[in-house]
């Protein structure tokens, strides 16, 4: 079956775009791998009217909104997208294929954690990446910040507002200049030298065997756009500055890409976007897709 739009990714961006398209009476299929980036988190935050809802609850509500307007859903992982007559052929890992006149990519990002034992199994619970997402819930606890070369002092000072018991672990990756030391000292941040060898239930273990008790550890991750399936179209990821990760470049604020008929919304193109701003990007892309189809239909009717 051919759809007006195939949406790849059923998170806030993809669902919001699907709602806009469904309300415009367009046929829409959402293909989702059911692997949300925030699956390990207990709650979502900074999402107006949905504060502290579970990630599953947020997606279920969004899916119900889309289904109200006739949007179809399929669980699967997209393996490749190729050009087809009048649009695109989307093939999933299980060998099924559908066609769509247009494509909205809302696959988000994957987080690549530092290779330190104990981080992966505690990810999203006591290993945290975003102060704005988790700082309030961790307030007043003993928090550590794992040192890295990317704006670590700024990130540490951000976490300081949620606790007075804050430790920066240099992890053999950071050299502080006198001005940075003064900033941290002024805010009462303890600095611990040495390589971090593990994070356990007892706290941060250093290479020399010392354990510094910590309830939470703030960790910077490298982020990678989930976009390998777009390679047949010539759409490739680009590197973010400072080695932060990869993203899908877009041509304008609507999420239009260099390939006609393909739009991107959410974290796949904007690594800084939170859930609510990703949903907003999905609305913007959905509106652009609607108008693109309107103009195409008008041209073909002549």
Explain the overall architecture.
By secondary structure, the protein is α/β, with parallel strands linked by helices. It folds into 2 domains: 2-111 and 221-300, 3-Layer(bba) Sandwich (FAD/NAD(P)-binding domain), CATH 3.50.50; 114-218, FAD/NAD(P)-binding domain, CATH 3.50.50. 26% of the residues lie in helices and 26% in strands. It contains 7 helices and 19 strands. Strands 1, 2, 3, 4, 5, 6 and 19 form a 7-stranded mixed β-sheet that branches. A 5-stranded parallel β-sheet has the order 8-15-9-10-11. A hairpin with a 4-residue loop joins strand 13 and strand 14 (211-212). The longest helix has 26 residues, at 275-300. It is elongated and about 75 Å long. The two termini are 26 Å apart. The mean pLDDT is 95.
CATH superfamily of the largest domain: FAD/NAD(P)-binding domain
* Average of per-residue pLDDT values: 95
> How many domain units?
2
Q: Outline the low-pLDDT stretches.
A: none
Helix content: 25-40%
Secondary-structure arrangement, i.e. CATH architecture of the largest domain: 3-Layer(bba) Sandwich
Question: Strand content of the residues, in percent?
Answer: 25-35%
The main β sheet shows up as: 7 strands, mixed
**CATH T-level topology of the largest domain:** FAD/NAD(P)-binding domain
- Rg measurement, Å: 22 Å
Overall CATH class of the largest domain: Alpha Beta
End-to-end distance, in Å?
Answer: 26 Å
Given the helix and strand composition, which structural class is it?
Answer: alpha/beta
């Amino acid at each position: 079956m051919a759809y007006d739009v195939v949406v790849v990714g059923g998170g806030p961006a993809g669902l919001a775009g699907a709602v806009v398209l469904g309300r415009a009476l367009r046929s829409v299929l959402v293909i989702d791998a059911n692997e949300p980036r925030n699956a390990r988190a207990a709650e979502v935050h900074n999402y107006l009217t949905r504060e502290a809802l579970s990630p599953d609850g947020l997606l279920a509500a969004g899916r119900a909104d889309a289904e109200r307007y006739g949007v179809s859903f399929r669980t699967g992982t997209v393996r490749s997208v190729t050009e087809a007559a009048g649009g695109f052929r989307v093939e999933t890992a299980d060998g099924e294929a559908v066609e769509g006149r247009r494509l909205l990519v809302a696959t988000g990002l994957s987080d690549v954690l530092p290779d330190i034992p104990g981080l992966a199994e505690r990810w999203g619970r006591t290993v945290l990446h975003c102060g704005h997402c988790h700082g309030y819930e961790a307030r007043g606890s003993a928090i550590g910040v794992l040192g890295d070369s990317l704006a670590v002092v700024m990130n540490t000072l951000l976490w300081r507002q949620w606790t007075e018991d804050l430790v920066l672990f240099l992890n053999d990756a950071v050299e502080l200049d006198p001005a940075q030391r003064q900033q941290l000292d002024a805010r009462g941040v303890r600095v611990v030298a040495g390589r971090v060898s593990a994070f356990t239930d007892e706290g941060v273990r250093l290479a020399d065997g010392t354990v510094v008790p910590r309830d939470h550890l703030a960790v910077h991750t490298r982020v990678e756009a989930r976009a390998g399936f777009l390679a047949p179209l010539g759409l490739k990821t680009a590197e973010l500055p400072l080695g932060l990760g990869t993203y899908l470049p877009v041509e304008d604020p609507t999420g239009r890409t260099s390939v006609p008929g393909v739009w991107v919304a959410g974290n796949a193109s904007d690594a800084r976007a939170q859930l609510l701003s990703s949903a907003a990007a999905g609305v913007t892309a959905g509106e652009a897709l609607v108008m693109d189809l309107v103009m195409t239909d008008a041209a073909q009717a002549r």
